Amino acid sequence: MHIKANLSKFVDRFGIKMKKIRLDIVGLSYSQTQSGAYALVLGEVEGNRRLPIIIGSHEAQAIAIRIEKMIPSRPLTHDLFQSFAESFGIKLIEVLIYNLIEGIFYAKIICSDGNKIVEIDARTSDAVALAVRFEAPIYAYEFIMSSAGIIIEGHEFAFLENLDKASKSQDPNVMEVEEKTPSKSPTNPFSSLTDEQLEQALNQALADENYEQAALIRDEISKRK
Question: DSSP secondary structure string, 100-161?
Answer without folding.
Answer: EETTEEEEEEEEE-SS-EEEEEE-HHHHHHHHHHHT--EEEEHHHHHHH-EE--S-HHHHHH
